[in-house]
Structure formats: C-alpha cells, structure tokens
Amino acid sequence: MDIDWTQNSSQCTDIEEMWLLFKDRLMDGVVQYVPEISQFYDWRKPYWRRPLSANIRIKIKNKHMLWKQYLVSRNIEFLHKYKRLCNQIQKITRCIHKAEQNEVARWTKTNPKKSFCNYFSSVFTIYDVATNNVDDVENVILNETDLEIFLSGVEFNDFSILKALDELNIYKSPCPDCLHPRILYETRNVISVSLRIIFEASMRMKQLPKDWINANICAVHKKRK
Fold first, then answer.
1. At residue 51, what are phi and psi to the nearest 5 degrees?
2. Burial of residue 185 (number of CB atoms within 10 Å: 0-12, 13-18, 19+)
C-alpha cells in the first residue's frame, strides 16, 4: 500500500479502475502476509464464554473414549456405558437448548417490535436529512436538486474515515467485495488516505464501484405463509 495514491489515481479513467487498484493491492497483501490457518488455541483468552460447562465437556470426552474402547475390545460392557452416557449428554444438552429458546421467546414477547428493529438497525441506518427525524423518513422525498445541495456539503477527511474504520465489527463476515472487516481494521492507519481519495473521486465523478452496490440478499420464509 506504500505508493503515491494521488499520482496513481490521476491515471485512472473512472472510479471502478481506482477501486480495483486499491482492492488488488490490498488483496495482494492479504495473500502475502495473512496466514490461512489461525492458531486459535494459542491466543484465545481463558475467560471466553463457552456454551457448555466443563463437566459436560468431560462427559463428551469420556463418551468418545468409551466408544473407542468398545471398537477395540468389543466388550458389551463398554457399549452399555457408552449408551448410558449418550443419553445423559443428550438430556443435558436438550435442557440447555430449551432454556435458550425460552429466553429468546421471553425477550421477543416482551417487545417484539424493538427486537425486530434492533436487528435491522445493526445492519442498516437511515438518517432523515430534511427533518432529522428518523420516524418520519418515509415522508421525505429528495429530488435531484435537493440531492445536489445536500451532497455539496459532504466532505471527507482522514480523521473521519479512520474513526469509521476504527468502529468496524471485525467478527462479521466479508461483503461481496471479499474484503474482511478485520483486514480493513488492521490496516486502517494505512488505507485511510487512499480511501479518502477514492471517496472524493466518487463524489466528483458521480460514480460508484460495482462492489459498493452489490449485496448478498437472502429471503427469510415464514411457516404457513
């Protein structure tokens, strides 16, 4: 990423070419420096929350050991112990799963609209540029002239871009552009200048790269509908 972005961007004919130049340079660095296999067990924190307790994990481990002992010796006693332990583990895990479902159902019944809104607000954020009232956003219709006036006051700077990159959720999946949020977060101090140049060129040319307008959309089907 250590190149003169001002000079290289001036040689590009459109915003798509500028974005592909930035993306290719970033992906080359990912292939060269980011390992494909993560040593998770070396750096995970010991106080991370786990869905199963230590006692249940020990039971599961003993279950696997009993099954291996049965395969080697063909002793029917090992098989009986294995089946009894399987039934105990199944009963415990079903109780845990049922408790989680009851908690979700209780939270949803308390305020279903808020739970539904909280999910979508984490993905989409809508701002009413005319009245600054999000609840009345459906009544706002911007024509081309109003949009030109609004966009004329938009400015990009390295600090605001760096702040937005600093607030990325690194645990989310990559978008259709295949750029993982963790990569953008770790390289935020380097790519902020190049992104500012691309944003300013996009506003000036009134163009958007194809990756910015693509999205993965999945329909959620309801039962008995």
1. -70, -25
2. middle
Residues in the chain: 225
Is residue 40 predicted with pLDDT exceeding 80? no
Q: What is the mean pLDDT of the chain?
A: 78
| Dmax (CA) of the chain | 83
Joined together, the tokens standing for residue 174 give: 């990559």
Helix residue ranges per DSSP H, 34-53: 40-43
pLDDT, tens digit, for every residue of 120-179? 555 454 444 444 444 444 444 445 666 667 667 778 888 999 999 999 999 888 888 888
189 and 9 Cβ atoms separated by less than 8 Å: no
Instruction: Give, as one character, the DSSP assignment of residue 28.
Output: H
Q: Which residue type, as a one-letter code, is found at position 90?
A: Q
Q: How many CB atoms lie within 10 A of CB 82?
A: 19
Residue type, 51: P
pTM for the model stands at 0.52
Sign for the CA dihedral angle at 183, 189, 190, 193 comes to: positive
Q: How distant, in Å, are the alpha carbons of 29, 144, 155, 162, 184 from that of 125?
A: 31, 22, 19, 19, 20
Q: Is residue 132 classed as helix, strand or coil in its secondary structure?
A: coil
Instruction: Dump pLDDT digits (tens) for 59-118.
Output: 999 999 999 999 988 899 999 999 999 999 999 888 888 887 787 677 777 776 666 665
Q: Which residue has the tokens 């002793």?
A: 75
Question: Cβ(109)–Cβ(115) under 8 Å?
Answer: no
Domain ranges of the chain: 1-35+156-225, 50-118
